[in-house]
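Extended Data, panel c. Modelled sequence:
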Amino acid sequence: MNGICLHYWYRFLDKIIGNSMKNKVGVVLKVFADQLVYAPLSILAFFSFAAVLENEKSSDAIDALVVKVKFNFLHTLIADCTMWPLVNAINFRFIPLNYRPSFVGLAQLIWQTYLSTAARLNNEASLSNHSQPSMQEPLSDCVAGQRS
């Protein structure tokens, strides 16, 4: 699903900003657009899918989504900013438009492995402490996935 979204997102950016393979300013603009628009939407979409998959009742899924957003969104967005601007700068500058979703798919493998490991470690810590994650916990409470 994310590959389809990325295909149209990258085409939209090329249409609005232009071909960034020949223009360094275009690369910067696309990276900013991706971080300001696509990243938050992608994180929210992942939290939503995760909440639905983890809960049988829709009311429980909504409650879980609210908790995920409240406790994890900001940390996840900060973690996102540590990796994706560089990946996207390379992507927008050197990768032809048709291959960008595939290149990002490889980077997503690394990103999702990190997030899965961080979520597992955080879940183990939460189970042993019987507490909710707090805003002071490290980036290991990030639970996002699909990303540009």
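The longest helix spans residues 58-94. This feature is highlighted in the accompanying rendering.
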